[in-house]
Design a protein that fits this description.
Elements: E1 5-10, H1 17-30, H2 44-52, E2 56-63, E3 66-77, E4 85-94, H3 103-117, H4 134-139
Antiparallel strand pairs: 1-2, 2-3, 3-4
């Protein structure tokens, strides 16, 4: 810690997958709810395909060269309205050592700025029951849009 955190957009093709998986595994282990699935196994092929089609953007937070956080979004046209593009958080995580201060706020603000510059005007971010961030999102100007329910089949 102690180094300045930088925020940038990065691309799946150029990422250090071992480094990314290390942080993603911390995220996986921290979130204990049925939606996470049964095993940790990153689908790099699908991530790459989505990025190649313009359906994925990945933003990172780094302390020096070390990956300390990420925020990925899935982008898709609405099937109900041709004028709407859905930008939905796929995953976001900040290493626990970097959660003090404003690193999380700065990561969110950076993502919002980049998406707005790319012409998007709506970002959907879930808050889970197991690990709610409702107050954080409200402070950043988000409003509750809907409640999702899940059933294991």
């Amino acid at each position: 810690m102690g180094r300045e955190i930088t925020y940038q957009q990065e691309f799946i093709a150029g990422c250090d997958r071992e480094e990314a998986e290390g942080l993603m595994k911390l995220d996986w282990n921290e979130i204990d709810h049925p939606a996470k699935g049964t095993e940790f196994l990153i689908d790099w092929v699908t991530y790459q395909k989505l990025e190649d089609m313009g359906g994925l953007k990945v933003f990172t937070a780094r302390s020096g060269k070390v990956l300390v956080g990420y925020f990925s979004v899935a982008i898709s046209p609405s099937l109900n309205s041709k004028s709407v593009v859905n930008v939905v958080s796929d995953a976001f995580y900040l290493h626990p050592e970097y959660r003090k201060g404003f690193a999380g706020v700065k990561l969110f603000k950076f993502v919002e700025k980049c998406l707005k510059e790319d012409g998007y005007n709506n970002l959907v971010v879930p808050s889970t029951e197991a690990y709610p961030i409702d107050n954080f999102l409200t402070r950043l100007g988000y409003s509750k849009a809907e409640t999702l329910y899940q059933k294991e089949l």
